[in-house]
Amino acid sequence: MTADYHDIAFQGLPGAIQSKQVDLAIAAISETPERAEAMDFTNVYYISEDGVLARADSDITIGSADDLAKYKVGVQRNTVYQDWVQTTLIDTG
Fold first, then answer.
1. With helix as H, strand as E and coil as C, how does 2-69 read?
2. φ/ψ of residue 38, rounded to 5
């Protein structure tokens, strides 16, 4: 048996599964209630830690979510991180 690999943008993975363009997706896809309605998830097999990246020459130090509020924060679209930034930083002011 052989596998065909397709490079698909993260936000396109649910649609690719639903339209049967692909049989499965392998990425750091966190299970959310909305995603669980559209896809079947495996048992949890990997738990990672979150991190923050900044330029090496910056003086940025992050110790809590409150420390992020004064910076421009970039996250990948349609991820749990986008949701987290929205609810934790933006919605709370």
1. CCCCCCCCHHHHHHHHHCCCCCCCCCCCCCCHHHHHHCCCCCCCCCCCCCCCCCCCCCCCCCCHHHHC
2. -100, -20
CB 27, CB 78: distance < 8 Å: no
* One pLDDT digit (tens) per residue for the chain, 93 residues: 888 989 998 888 889 999 999 999 988 888 889 888 888 999 888 888 888 899 999 999 999 888 998 899 999 888 888 999 999 999 988
This prediction has a pTM of 0.63
CA angle centred on 83, ends 9 and 47, rounded to 5°: 75
